[in-house]
């Protein structure tokens, strides 16, 4: 398992270079408008302090693009500390002013894994949110192996008919890319079983449960044109099995990751913003479920890029259109450069832009 060994080696070095964070340093929150199942509404985002993703802390070394674990404590945190930090962040935002809000809880891994977030802390957090009286949606993230009936029963026992969305990092419907290039460690079948279980619980137990898939745009060893094709295929696949929403995450280079190693060696570059626009426009044309495009890192040295002139402007348009679900209409001269690269990458399968080839 070449990719696992490389992930482990790079992760180990990253841990040696960096001190783990304290629970207080991990906890974070922000509050703004987002697209909910009920239209645009205020959404509270909270990063809960956790030891880090069990997949990254275990023998696998974790996914090739992810550095979440470097932002965690690496050690289990007691329930009391987690709750103290959660309440402190909850009190920072004027959430009581709204009739309805959505809450997104990030665990830098799997919210449903009791090792990462102890059951007592999870239950208390959910109880607190339900008791606020205006939380209409609770969104969490989890790997498929923790999505089981027992945990969902425990959760719905507390939240009643509050909408509960579980987002899963499927990344791509292509098993080879997910397993060998992303080192994700689960198959399309595992993802499907998790989505099927949620649908089954919706029908059998009347749970107000939804699923979302994260789609990663441009893993290592994937060319510019291939990354567009795979993302669109993944969206079709997700719709076909009944996933409720999609969120596209274009690659940004985080430190201490395999993707960073490839990038430093000139064997990788993040996608063009034009590729992301192409994906979201195609998906909004061909697919009926809501689709979001994450703009983290857009226009930065380590993120998706276009020319200096249009990167920033496009970022604002994309954020605004995530709320309206409309297509991105925009033109800039650099689009021709992108088109040339797309055609090139079809011929030479390069994963980076070929600037100049010396022939003799
Ligand atoms: S992408 Fe998700 S599963 Fe993979 S290492 Fe990061 S947090 Fe863990
Ligand atoms: Zn441009």
Quick gist of this model?
By secondary structure, the chain is an alpha/beta fold. It has 13 helices and eight strands. α6 (149-159) links the parallel β4 (135-141) and β5 (163-171).
Poorly predicted regions are: none
Total DSSP helices: 13
**H/E element order:** HHEEHHEHEHEHHEHEHHEHH
Tell me about the largest β-sheet: 8 strands, mixed
CATH architecture: Alpha-Beta Barrel
Helix content percent band: 40-55%
Structural class: alpha/beta
Average pLDDT works out at 94
Query: C-alpha Rg, in Å?
Result: 20 Å
The proportion of strand residues reads 15-25%
Q: What small molecules does this complex bind? A: iron/sulfur cluster, zinc ion
Amino-to-carboxy terminus distance? 38 Å
Any idea what the shape is? globular
How many discrete domains? Answer: 1
- E-strand count: 8
CATH class: Alpha Beta
> What fold name goes in the CATH topology slot?
TIM Barrel
Walk across the major sheet and give the strand order: 1-2-3-4-5-6-7-8
Description:
It is a single chain. The radius of gyration is 20 Å and the shape is globular. The protein contains 13 helices and eight strands. An eight-stranded mixed β-sheet has the order 1-2-3-4-5-6-7-8. Helix 4 (79-90) packs parallel to helix 5 and helix 5 runs parallel beside helix 6. It is α/β, with parallel strands linked by helices and 360 residues long. It binds iron/sulfur cluster (SF4) and zinc ion (ZN). The site of iron/sulfur cluster (SF4) has 10 residues, from helix 3.
